[in-house]
């Protein structure tokens, strides 16, 4: 039986990557060592880490005036690391946050521990759009409704909410918002590398690797170099972006094996045709799954269509009492990781880069079968 892993993260990795890692486990390229055993300052790991950075730069077109850093602590740790590094970038020592779901709400709350932060926009309320009612965190406020402090050190937003399944497909024009000098800071964890992205539109982007980039344990941070160097005195030296950037992610011992795995994923992405190819594949998968949900009264996706995530697709059954039967039937068919986040319930299918269209089609067939039996 083929197993399809729809987990939101840690999530499915490309089969080719796992096979290569398995083949190299005991002896990396004739070194006589596993990558797990290598010194992070040795020639072998230096090559692995530098190649991973170079391949990531190629995938995203990252210019030299941006630092690429492989860090630890996940995107959750960056909720503290970012304000400690960036709140003092401008004299006002304040930052603005846009809250569109659970993760950006956590980012906002954490940043407030380190200084003054304000809410620039929020979707934490019910709204009626085009005659249709949408609940909290099921939509994104129009950019014209955002209130951004022109003196803020940065504007933070989560561009894909993993739990709620809300994705931003465009970014605001900061000049139109009257805040041309305010850099955007983007949590892109759950749609990082899913499509082309112009890094230069943001001052900093960050992403936990365990969605599209590799295994849990690595956090990718890409930051404009001119924003570095203003860290608070309380910022640990290992989390000061200046130190991490200057030492090319090797200021202290980094998650060496995780970085190696990320490097394999980056090379896999390049072999697939890069992010343009990923965009086409991800659009096709999302269209297939949403079409099946929309064709049925038995399943419902509650997100405004303009903001439906292509990576994380939450849905609910018409009868919650059938949830356990649905999950049991899915598991029996090799469809795993479909239970929704505990904070929202229901179901969620995460269809990241490594999930092929065949997995989505298998899920769609099961959706139809379950509805026939229980609808």
From TrEMBL:
Cofactor binding notes: Binds 1 pyridoxal phosphate per subunit.
Q: What is its main location?
A: cytoplasm
- Tree of life domain: Bacteria
Query: Which residues are pyridoxal 5'-phosphate-binding?
Result: 75-76, 103, 162, 187, 210, 252-253
Q: Which residues carry this modification: N6-(pyridoxal phosphate)lysine?
A: 211
Required co-factors:
pyridoxal 5'-phosphate
**What's a Gene Ontology MF term here?**
pyridoxal phosphate binding
* Assigned protein family: Belongs to the class-V pyridoxal-phosphate-dependent aminotransferase family. SerC subfamily.
Under the subunit heading, UniProt states:
Homodimer.
| Protein name according to UniProt | Phosphoserine aminotransferase
**Which organism's genome codes for this protein?**
Pelistega europaea
Top-down, what is the taxonomic lineage of the species of origin? Answer: Bacteria, Pseudomonadati, Pseudomonadota, Betaproteobacteria, Burkholderiales
């Amino acid at each position: 039986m083929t197993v399809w892993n729809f987990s939101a993260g840690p999530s499915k990795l490309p089969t080719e990557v796992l096979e290569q890692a398995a083949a190299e486990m005991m002896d990396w390229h004739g070194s006589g060592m596993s990558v797990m055993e290598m010194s992070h300052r040795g020639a072998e790991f230096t090559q692995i880490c530098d190649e991973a950075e170079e391949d990531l730069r190629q995938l995203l077109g990252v210019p030299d005036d941006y630092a690429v850093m492989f860090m630890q602590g996940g995107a959750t740790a960056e909720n503290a690391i970012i304000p400690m590094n960036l709140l003092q970038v401008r004299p006002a020592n304040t930052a603005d946050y846009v809250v569109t779901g659970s993760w950006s709400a956590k980012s906002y709350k954490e940043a407030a521990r380190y200084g003054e932060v304000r809410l620039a926009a929020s979707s934490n309320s019910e709204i009626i759009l085009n005659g249709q009612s949408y609940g909290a965190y099921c939509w994104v406020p129009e950019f014209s409704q955002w209130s951004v402090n022109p003196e803020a050190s940065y504007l933070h937003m989560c561009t894909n909410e993993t739990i709620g399944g809300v994705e931003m497909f465009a970014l605001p024009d900061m000049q139109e918002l009257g805040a041309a000098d305010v850099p955007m800071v983007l949590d892109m964890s759950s749609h990082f590398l899913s499509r082309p992205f112009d890094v230069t539109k943001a001052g900093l982007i960050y992403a936990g690797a365990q969605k599209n980039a590799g295994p849990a344990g690595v956090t990718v941070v890409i930051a404009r170099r001119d924003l570095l160097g203003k860290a608070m005195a309380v910022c640990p030296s290992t989390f000061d972006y200046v130190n991490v950037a200057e030492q090319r992610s090797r200021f202290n011992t980094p998650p060496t094996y995780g970085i190696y795995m990320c490097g394999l994923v980056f090379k896999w992405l390049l072999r697939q045709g890069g992010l343009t190819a990923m965009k086409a594949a991800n659009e096709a998968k999302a269209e297939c799954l949403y079409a099946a949900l929309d064709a049925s009264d038995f399943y419902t996706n509650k997100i405004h269509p303009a903001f439906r995530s292509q990576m994380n697709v939450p849905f609910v059954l018409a009868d919650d009492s059938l949830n356990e039967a649905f999950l049991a039937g899915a598991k029996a068919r090799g469809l795993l990781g479909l239970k929704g986040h505990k904070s929202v319930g229901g179901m969620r299918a995460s269809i990241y880069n490594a999930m092929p269209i065949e997995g989505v089609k298998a899920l769609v067939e099961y959706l139809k079968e379950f509805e026939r039996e229980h609808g």
